[in-house]
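Moderator note: this is an archived Q&A kept for reference. The question asked for a predicted structure of one protein chain; the sequence and the answer are reproduced below.
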Amino acid sequence: MCGISGIVTAEPKGALTLRTWLKAMNALQAHRGPDGEGTWVHTQGHLGFGHRRLSIIDLSAAAAQPMLLDNGLTITYNGEIYNYVELRQELGRERFRTSSDTEVILRAYERWGEECVDHLRGMFAFAIWDEKNHRLFCARDRFGIKPFYYFRNAKGFFFASEVKALLPFVDEIATDYSGLKDYFAFQFTLGAKTLFKGIEQLLPGHILILENGNLKIQKYWEVHYKLDWFHTKRYFEEEVRNLLLDSMRMHLRSDVPVGSYLSGGMDSSIVASLSRKIQCVGDFHAFHGKFANGPEFDESRYAQIVADFCNMELHEREITSDDFVSSIRKVIYHLDYPVAGPGAFPQYMVSQLAGDHLKVVLGGQGGDEIFGGYARYLISYFEQCIKGAIEGTMHSGNFVVTYESIISNLATLRNYKPLLQEFWKEGIFEERDKRYFRLVNRANGLSKEINWELLEPYSAFETFRQIFWGNNVERESYFDSMTHFDFKTLLPALLQVEDRMSMAHGLESRVPLLDHPLVELVATIPSNIKFENGQLKHLLKKTFQQDLPTQVNQRQDKMGFPVPLNDWMQGALRNFIEDIFHDDKARHRDYLNPDFNIQTLTASEGRFTRKVWGLLSLELWQQEYHDKSYEFKKLTEGA
């Protein structure tokens, strides 16, 4: 796990200038690789790579990067190729001078060219300079676990693992208004957009080629929801179990110790439990964060039950409002731009705890999007069931669950009554895309605070619809359309949090549920198996029930990683938040209405709404990056 960067200049700049620029990029990403630093500059002075190293596989100096082969290939790479052992065998072990997965990528490109990515199993973002063809070849993993940002201007083409490393070279640090409109709707951007004008991200499952000044981007992988009606539920349970166990074995490959996050929920508990079954000898460390603000914010009891069940040592950290005050600016800085809700804050704290003990940790990210774990799926289907019962079409085959069977699982929605009230306030029984957009759209609550005229004419809904009705999803499957949208949009946003919060502490976070053979299989499983009787993540629970304590496997009150932010707003954090918005710049951001008042908004915030969080993190981002733009520019002055 590392930080990468690179430059292809429009005109030769010379080795000294390029090394200065690359060292500046390395410095801004130093947290990603505390174990080493390297730069490489082409002899013609027109391109170069930078690298910060976190040593996980092959700790020797021979595996340092950027790595050059005598065949004219040079690479800078971030990630882990879990099947590197098998690929070394296939490519010819005698050809390798290191035991690193980095060299495996170079040899794979040498053998298969652009199609090398089809052979890679893991998380990765890399760039290869191909001297023979004078080509820059870049790739990002199938799910977006590892980041890759880039932009192009008169100076040339620049890329890096984090946006902050690009900012010294952009013409202007400015906000992308289309991305901002996405942010208000979803608290993340859609497609290749970021919140920075002119800076884009290479999409998951895509490659980028820069050759003779021409930039080409193309997709190399897609998940297809082509339903398999031929196999039985038992078959799918066995296949899911076998594939996840195989993924776990791969993800436990490391030359340093591996531990696990343990929230007390289904996904991280399964990952931790299977890890312990495979790595059954010696100590195994798990990490948990909790809040002392009531039982709805404290899941430590469930985490301890799993730890005892699996014979793990559980490390806990109680997270307080004082932690929020002391760390929230660091959280926003490391995120590059705000994304995916307040869960980034406790993730930062727990990653810090894990980083104090080891260098690699496993997490359960991806389970909700793959197997269907969000309460809004149940809300959407409940409405469709009511509609079907009224219209007499309940048993016509258009539904994966029936009104009668879903009733027993509605207790899952106990804590979501405010969301239900908002959802059913208007538009009931509209088209499925409009109804799901209403469930995920957070802009409705910001009608008075935001200067919407500034953000026209871009339509976040139209972009949403294109993803929701993707050609890779069978149109009649409402469940797959919902999970697919979240898989393509929310999941990469959550993975941005996963990557940044762990790398802020020099920690590698691995996500075994996001292994493409497993994901490809689950996408073909009919919804009446994955979502039987409206039970969220039914297939996952059934498949791994023997690996978990009953108290965890049968939980219906899991709410992700809830943060008592709104409780704190009414007390310990109120002055802190209001002081942030009292600054003259904060009160006059162009996206805010002139009569915006933070005191009024804070006082009216509901317990589980995110309006204040969304605007607070956006303001801190403006202060950290826009108001301090001169600090980034001065890093390359004189070069």
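Archived answer notes: The first helix runs from residue 15 to 28.
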